[in-house]
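QUALITY CONTROL LOG
STEP: pairwise intake check
CHECKER ROLE: data steward
CRITERIA: each record must contain a sequence immediately followed by its structure tokens, with no blank fields

ENTRY 1 OF 2
RESULT FIELD BELOW
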Amino acid sequence: MQQWVEGRVVKKVRWSEGLYSVRFDAPVEAFAAGQFTKVALDLDGERIGRPYSFVNAPHERPIEIYFNTIPEGPLSNRLAALEPGDRLWVNPKPNGLLTLAETPNAEHLWMLSTGTALGPFLSILKTEEPWRRFRRVVLVHAVRYLRDLSYQDEIGALRAAHPRQLSFVPVVSRECLDGALPGRIPAHILDGSLEGRAGLQLSPADSHVMLCGNSAMIADTLDVLSRRGMRRHRRREPGHISTEKYH
């Protein structure tokens, strides 16, 4: 049976149309950066919950989740309507394997995300471990429009703190933006433009890739990377690519 504890909203941020983050206090158990939990609301006599990644690092409070509203989604629109002081329900037990504890050692770490899947990567980057373990880190955030490039202050602070290690590459598919690559992540791996922008080679010899985002991006990126001899990482069969399964 699903466990729930009560949480209270501290702050809501509307990043753009349909794009929100909610910060809340709740007695969740210790988690690893990159993990997720379930957040729920009582709707029409039923408790509806969905998985959301932690955006905050394990040492940070309040808890923060980042999400987009779905027109027919019963939960996301109600989450977006919450205000400070409102109640929600949280599963206190974290889950997920998209963590650095599950990531093999490499020279370079590539974090490729679309939309709200930026969240778990921010959680990881706000800890000390990636800066100890990897010589270079490349964070890629792919969105449709400029307005969807959220958390720019946080990313800017990370770049300022680790100027020689962190590269940030925005990808914007439906607008032209100076400094951003157009189109989709897989195409930029295929033609080498992502590596050109990062100033770094993406190869199985020295790179590990973490993928988080929409299923089409993940499937197409896995296909492109497989042509370079890169494969999914598993505990029993070490590889070069980590993904998450939300449940």
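ENTRY 2 OF 2
RESULT FIELD BELOW
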Amino acid sequence: MPQYDFDLGVLGGGSAGLTITAGAAQLGVRTLLAEKEDKLGGDCLHYGCVPSKALVKAAHVYHTARNTARFGLPELDMKPVDYRHVAERIKSVIDVIQVHDSEERFCELGAKVVFGAARFLDAHTIQVNGVTYSAKTWVIATGTSPMIPGFEGLDSTPHLTNREIFSLETLPHSMIILGAGPIACEMAQAFARLGAKVSVVQRSQQILSKEDKDMADTLMDVMRREGVDFYLDTSIVRVQDLGEMRQVVFTMGDDNKQQISLQADALLVALGRTPNLDDLGLNDIGVVYDKKGLTLDARLRTTRKHIYGAGDVTGNYQFTHAAGYEGGIVIRNAVFRLPTKVNYTNMPWCTYTDPELASIGLNEKRANAEGIDYTVWTEHFHRNDRSVAEGEEVGSIKMLLDSQERPLGIQILGPQAGELVGEWVAVMNGNVKLSTVVSAVHPYPTLAEINKRVVGNLFAGKLYSEKVKKGLKFFFNLRGRACGCNESS
């Protein structure tokens, strides 16, 4: 039997890699973690989830302070934002969390950590900084990088991605954002609230193209009222560096005749991600992948069964919580040897705009694409007393049910939607009956009451039906309405 340096080797110190390394090491698995950057944490900690939420919070506070009159308070004389201070706070937040993702912590857990670019020499051996390491089992969790399209002139035009946007020294007076996915929308609203003039140029006919159009359009209307300009259904003609300004020329609509030119002093490219796989030597060892990610089976094994994939390189849900889930699947398969398959049916996600847009399960767009019959039940936040009291009345919850009145999916556009969807994570993963949800007592007044109300709408139609009323009248001699208002003639 071959002898290897390690039982398990992990490439990538992001969310998936750290989950697997920590779990395996604590189980007594001799584990190696190789990370190409000089710190652990991956994009989520340094260039993604953590800094973006810190920025979104800063923008929210500034926006609220500039709109105190909405709450009956005196207007404040707000100074312009010094972005250096915002960037400093973002860095301080990262530094706090970095302690949890430090080399020292993983060493204490029992794992060996090495820094540097890794490349496979054979199916069980990698080389990092000229040193070779072998392992019986490997996991590729190398994440993704910003996808830079081949637009004319973009390669010679200074532009930002998520790797640079959080450490700017000054706030741009104006910004053009290419793309209207979650990152683009969060950044568009945040920078607009901080004082920048923001324009969003989107290829498709709606923002957040994977979401239902009604929800996305409502959010877009909110952002437009806050000053963000949107250009949809576009085709980029060219990008140009004008010295102090950046120019984007594009057409809109099907005719592609009229060209529109925008100029701004900053250009953010947020047009998707590309997997970090090309430099690993995978072709030489028979591991198949494409531009979306690794080719994996349901147990997250590559075409070489002792090599697994997890995190963004799977090409599926590119979320930190999805990476953590996939890390658990890899542990069960690679360490416990329990044949466990991934199941993304109840994978939640959230876009952290204001209002937030959170989902779990199917939305109408996906249900229609899969040919699934469903009914829709809705409840609006303007009917929620806590929302009214806090001036957060935009949005609604949408519940999709199958023919057996079981939930297929939930979408929530509204205040703290990412927190509210947590109740549905428990309901859908626990197969909780809707009758249990509607009979549960929620504290008043809370935003969470909207979860009960949307289910209540379903049961109200049954409980207050003419059939029930006639039955009660027959058995208990009830006499009906006491007021003639709105009574049919």
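INTAKE CHECK: passed for both entries
DESCRIPTIVE NOTE, ENTRY 2: The CA atoms of residues 249 and 269 lie 14 Å apart.
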